[in-house]
Structure formats: structure tokens, C-alpha cells
From TrEMBL:
<protein>
    <submittedName>
        <fullName>2-keto-3-deoxy-phosphogalactonate aldolase</fullName>
        <ecNumber>4.1.2.21</ecNumber>
    </submittedName>
</protein>
<comment type="pathway">
    <text>Carbohydrate acid metabolism.</text>
</comment>
<keyword id="KW-0456">Lyase</keyword>
<keyword id="KW-0119">Carbohydrate metabolism</keyword>
<comment type="subunit">
    <text>Homotrimer.</text>
</comment>
<dbReference type="Pfam" id="PF01081">
    <property type="entry name" value="Aldolase"/>
</dbReference>
<comment type="similarity">
    <text>Belongs to the KHG/KDPG aldolase family.</text>
</comment>
<dbReference type="InterPro" id="IPR013785">
    <property type="entry name" value="Aldolase_TIM"/>
</dbReference>
<dbReference type="GO" id="GO:0008674">
    <property type="term" value="F:2-dehydro-3-deoxy-6-phosphogalactonate aldolase activity"/>
</dbReference>
<dbReference type="InterPro" id="IPR000887">
    <property type="entry name" value="Aldlse_KDPG_KHG"/>
</dbReference>
């Protein structure tokens, strides 16, 4: 069973992409983001989409312009994650039938992103907003809006974020750092999944 966790693989190299992707899927993480400031990111995305695309949603992070959305589509990616809420990027993702998860920090950004067609919202950086900030935003966001906390969310505070209304999380350096082996990533992924499951069981 996969969890609402996005693996952020910043710095991933194409030659290790498939092994790392397989390790993540085996551990229960089936949404994978390769930030575009990684080495040859579209090659990594293409390799993973071909190898595990039937079991995982593979896409790109740090997507900043519509041209990158088009390249992602061509590489077989299915999810667009951005650090900001850019109308052109969100609309391009929707036009190509891809999921769009723009970064937002305020209700104004959140409502704009949803109006432009965002699939869900990436609350970023989560460490600046915190669970209480999300709780306040939840009071006004449309029912059913999916919000993932990214940057400042991890095993130590999964429970607080879930109680505040987070639907899921994006996990970066706590899961993957350049140079780690697929086995190491898998071990971290299993620990994160276990921590998420415990927090989910304990949440009201």
C-alpha cells in the first residue's frame, strides 16, 4: 500500500534512478519527484517512468516554466511540482493532463492556484508556516482541497501536521541525499513509512 508521501530526489543521477525508484516503491512510497536542478533530470524521469510507471507516479520538481512541463510530458512524467504558484505552469500541466502541485504560503496564493487548475497545494516551506498556520488556512480552503506539507515536515511532527489537516508530505533530504545507495534509500523509506503509519493511527 502506498502512502501520501512524495519522495524528493534532489541530485539523483540517471544511472541510479531505477534502483532508487524500485526501492521506494517496495517501501510503500509511490510518488517520486526529481527536481529539475538535478543532473540530467529528464533522463532520470524517463528511466523511472519506463521501469516503474505502472506502479508509481513519477514527475518533476522545481518546475518553473511551461516549456519544462512539455519536456516532462515527453519524458513520461505525470506530476508537476513547483516551489511557487505560477499561472502558466499550472495551466500547462492541466492542458497536458498532468497533476500540478504548486508551492503556496498564503490563502491568496492557495486560492489563485486552485482557480488556475492546481491538483493540490504544496505548503512550502512548511517550517515557516507550521501546523497552526495550516490549521488556520484549512478554515477557509474549499472542502476536499489536498494540501501536502513540504520543508519542515518529518517523523518528529507528522502527527501535528496531520492533526492540523495535512493530507500528505513531501520528503527530501531525510529520505535521499546524493551518493546514497538504493539500499540506504530503501531503509530510510521504510522508516519514514513506519513513522507515517504510527502518526496516522494516532491522529484523531
Amino acid at each position: 500500500m502506498s502512502r501520501p508521501l512524495i519522495a524528493i530526489l534532489r541530485g539523483l543521477r540517471p544511472e541510479e534512478a531505477v534502483a532508487v525508484g524500485e526501492a521506494l516503491v517496495a517501501a510503500g512510497i509511490a510518488v517520486i519527484e526529481v527536481p529539475l536542478n538535478s543532473p540530467d533530470p529528464f533522463a532520470s524521469i524517463r528511466a523511472m517512468a519506463h521501469a516503474i510507471g505502472d506502479r508509481a507516479t513519477v514527475g518533476a520538481g522545481t518546475v518553473l516554466c511551461p516549456e519544462e512541463v512539455e519536456r516532462l510530458k515527453e519524458a513520461g512524467g505525470r506530476i508537476v511540482v513547483s516551489p511557487n504558484a505560477d499561472e502558466a505552469v499550472i495551466r500547462a500541466a492541466a492542458a497536458h493532463g498532468l497533476e500540478s502541485w504548486p508551492g503556496v504560503m498564503t490563502p491568496t496564493e492557495a486560492f489563485a492556484a486552485l482557480r488556475w487548475g492546481a491538483t493540490g497545494l504544496k505548503l512550502f516551506p512548511g517550517s515557516l508556516i507550521g501546523p497552526e498556520g495550516l490549521r488556520a488556512m484549512r478554515a477557509v480552503l474549499p472542502s476536499g482541497t489536498r494540501v501536502y506539507a513540504v520543508g519542515g515536515a518529518g517523523p518528529e511532527n507528522f502527527a501535528a501536521w496531520l492533526a492540523a489537516g495535512a493530507d500528505g508530505f513531501g520528503i527530501g533530504s531525510a529520505l535521499y541525499r546524493p551518493g546514497m545507495t538504493a539500499e540506504q534509500v530503501g531503509e530510510r523509506a521504510r522508516a519514514l513509512v513506519a513513522a507515517y503509519d504510527r502518526a496516522r493511527e494516532d491522529s484523531p
